[in-house]
Amino acid sequence: MSDHLRTALALAADGLPVLPLRRGKVPFGNCPACVRNRCGGRPNMKTPGPCTCPAPCHGWSAATIAPDTLASPAWARAWRDAAAVAYHPGGAGLTVVDLDTVAAVAWARRTLPLTRTVPSTRGEHWIYQGAMQGANGVREGVDIKSSMAYARWLGPGTGTLTDLPASVRALTVKTPPTVRPTQVVAAPAPDASGACPHRTPAYLDRGIAMAEGRISEATSGIHAAVYRTFLAVLSTHGRCGCLTDAHVARLFTAAQSKGETTRHCTDAWTNARNRLGL
């Protein structure tokens, strides 16, 4: 029996779902029956344990506490070639804050409640009681390993295990982009005729509102959506003089709420004007 399998069986006996890692600290690839999820994978892929395939397939979801599975012939080659043992923290009701740099460790010591810590290659693992959705890159040098994730077993660590704090859960909450004070270019000057085809201000207001809606509803290709919307507004309202700086500011604000910078907005506006010869 390999040392890795011996460690895995001991951890499983304590209720920690485990799996082998190959060189590079990654799970073993799926077997031929499961490659590219040909087998259908596990239902929802949200709980630990292998699919009907007896091999350690499907990454973190292969983690198990069943000793017969861990010591089975289907897992034997993986343990023989394994470089490390990993575990599924969420499957044991745990969350690991993986601090991968000295700066990240210093931030945690200033910010997070003390809990059990384990030294890692470049930093520390801080382990809390309680599960949450795992997420990578929640801040510089910080990953969250819990549900739907795995963490490398580095030892039992030191310190008292404490409850998962709200400050850790908050790390995965995405905040809407900050809308900076709008700096816009001026609206186009009216053409020489000065004629305005818009009989009432309501026509223009409806047009601007529809343009704001198109930008806000865009789910991909935001740069292109903003440019096309600016082009449509300018083609309809750009020559008669009724388009004001306040209207342009509304369009820029809508674009910035989708993550566009002032520079992107200005470039899109300028390109649209140039295309229309305004």
Question: Secondary structure elements and their pairing?
Answer:
Elements: H1 3-13, E1 18-22, E2 26-27, H2 67-70, H3 73-81, E3 84-87, E4 94-99, H4 102-111, E5 116-119, E6 124-129, E7 135-139, E8 142-145, E9 151-152, E10 162-163, H5 166-169, H6 201-217, H7 222-237, H8 245-257, H9 262-276
Parallel strand pairs: 6-10
Antiparallel strand pairs: 1-2, 1-3, 3-9, 4-6, 4-8, 5-6, 7-8
Helix pairs in contact: 6-7, 6-8, 7-9
* Biggest beta sheet summary: 6 strands, mixed
Mean pLDDT: 84
- Order of helical and strand elements: HEEHHEEHEEEEEEHHHHH
End-to-end distance: 78 Å
Please work out how many helical segments DSSP would assign: 9
Overall, the morphology is elongated
The assigned structural class equals: alpha+beta
Helix amount? 25-40%
Specify the oligomeric state.
single chain
Proportion of residues in β-strands: 5-15%
Rg:
28 Å
The beta-strand count equals 10
Question: Which parts are unreliable, with pLDDT below 50 for 5 consecutive residues or more?
Answer: none
